[in-house]
Protein: Steroid delta-isomerase
Organism: Rudanella paleaurantiibacter
Amino acid sequence: MKYVFFIVCLLGQTPALHAQQEAPEKVVQRQLEAYNAQNLAAFVATYADSIEIYRFPNKLQMQGKAALEKSYGELFKNNPNNYAALLGRIVQGNTVIDQEKVTGRGDREVRATAIYEVKNGLIRRVWFVY
């Protein structure tokens, strides 16, 4: 009976528990794919409620999931062809560093490096280097 209960518990695990087991690079990849699809709900779901986004090294630009959703919602609405091409990725523990080329914001192309800190299956902090 205990064995059956254990199996039922395993099958009923919440998505958050699965996310905790997901490798940091997989979380960041899901975030990139949602960004490129301009799927705001899927994009925001990869971030912690207490997300902090910095301009490297320490200028806080955004804090909290509500601010993230508002800012990126406007970005997606105003730039329907926005796209981030992954040029390179480094993974070190719970840190993922992506070099990206962002296009679709008018005629300009932006090259940026994003440093993601992933904790418990969610992106907790991001530092952008422009």
